Amino acid sequence: MKTIDITVNRMIPASAQAAFDTWIDPHSPGGLWYGVKKVILNPVVDGLFYHVNAFEGKDWAHYGRFVRVERPSVLEHTWVSEATKGTESLVTITLKPEGDSTLFMLRHSRLPDDEMGRRHQEGWTGLLGVLAERFALSHSG
User: Fold this and answer.
1) Does the structure show a pLDDT above 80 at 138?
2) Computed from CA positions of residues 61, 68, 91, 15, in that sequence, does the dihedral angle turn out positive or negative?
3) Strand ranges of the sheet holding 3-12, from the earlier edge strand across to the other edge
4) 26 and 33 in contact (C-beta within 8 Å)?
5) Residues 6+ apart with CB under 8 A from 137
6) Is the pTM of this model over 0.85?
7) Where exactly are the structural domains of the chain?
8) Which of 14, 62, 96, 127 is the most buried (most CB within 10 A)?
């Protein structure tokens, strides 16, 4: 199967620690697992995750295992779903402090080179937008 890699970068108006902690906390608005229908999450090396989110009238299950957890600079985990055709892809997140903000770099590797694989670009872009907005709102007014 031919695969692609996608990259999404976003400046987050928060410290790397705050962005990292929010991203992995299922109870924090702006995080990857916030607001999903079901979540099981153990963000440690060899820990597993499973979550189900509703999208376009369908429930989508995602699961994987954490392969690197270096708080607050690197988080890497596998990613398997119907959209990856059941194959194991890899999500690598690198956080780089830049002044009072953090450059949040997300790379999703080994995605199928098809419409569903390419749609991950839109999904990750939207999620990082929500994370950035969460901190922009907390720093305004």
Assistant:
1) no
2) positive
3) 3-12, 101-112, 89-98, 74-81, 58-70, 48-55, 38-41
4) yes
5) none
6) yes
7) 3-139
8) 14
Phi/psi at 20 (5° precision): -60, -50
Looking at the chain, the whole-number percentage of residues with pLDDT higher than 70 is 97
The answer to whether the beta carbons of residues 120 and 108 sit under 8 Å apart is: yes
Long-range interactions of 65-69: CB distance < 8 A, separation 24+:
66/42, 68/92, 69/43, 69/44, 69/45
CB 14 within 8 A of CB 28: no
Query: Could you say which DSSP state residue 126 is in?
Result: H
**Which amino acid, one-letter code, is at 112?**
P
Superfamily of domain 3-139: START domain (3.30.530.20)
Burial class (CB in 10 A: 0-12, 13-18, 19+), 82: exposed
